[in-house]
Amino acid sequence: MGVLSESYHTSQLYHSTKNQAAFKQQEKRLRETPDLPGNLSFSIRLLSNEEIEKCMDPNSLYALDFLRLQYTPPPPLNLVMTTSALDKYDQCFRLLLRIVRMLFVVNHQLPRHGLPGVWESKSFRNEAHHFVSAVSSYFFDSGIGETWTAFEAALNGLERRMRAEDASSASTNSSFGSLVTEGLESVRAAHEECLDRILFALLLRRRQAQVMKLLEEIFETILAFAKRANDHQLSGGGAATVQRVSPDEAREIREMYMLFRSKVNVFMTVCRGLLGKRGGYGSRKAGGGSSLFAAAAAEKGGFVRSSDEENTIDRLLLKLEMNGYYSAPVATDLGLEGVGGS
Known about the structure:
Blueprint (H helix, E strand, L loop, with lengths): L2 H7 L2 H5 L4 H12 L8 E4 L4 H7 L11 E4 L12 H26 L11 H53 L11 H18 L7 H27 L11 H27 L15 H11 L13 H8 L9 E3 L2 E3 L5
């Protein structure tokens, strides 16, 4: 079994539908053909020559950008998961693949106790681990988890109202539409709105391109440090006592650390400038999505967030620092320098 097959067959959705008759028919078909629903599979992304060059470097942040998920939604799901929605899923997949890789790097490829003779390398390792962990936690928990939970609550509320309306119609001969006024178009709009919220939280909207560029530069600095540390370890031949870093290498690592601190400070300054700005995903005239979220919010006592809610970038800032650490001067053997400029 591949990664996708294992993920699908161990998912909550898979096990929650195992006892349904329709599922048993699908299970029989899946045993006869190895295809996953919608022919879900990995595929190769079409890239420009410049993007291909980036992918050729295994130490680059973009090394896995050639990989994408291929999915063909079956009817009537294709009316909800449109081409536009699939493109948004692909944007999220590309970013999250980078995040998972960065988590692996900071957890397994950075020197836990630093490099001999470069005390800054231990600080670099700890701060890089904290930064990547905080960003990934914000993306997965606030950016995706909470938003998708709100969308699921909206769908569950719609299903409950449909069942209640069916039961009421059967007993009182009342007309349809007394409890449910939304249609398939409303579900599509709510799904698109959910994805727009996620893209906004993941800093993937077009007007957030400069913020994402800063984040990518920070990740690239961490990857460069990981490569330098790995090269130094390999040059020692795997000896129990790692040889000291040469003066030139030590200076390069210190400069990487200063660059990392500087870019993190700029990134946080830009994020502070985003506080209070709204996503803009609730202003579309297509309608439908907001009404579905609003109906779920009314049913849940306002639990589901409205489309006009401000962004949650303050949560990321809180995860990254609570005491002005990155805006303070940093001391290295290069001298005491202010991070982020005057």
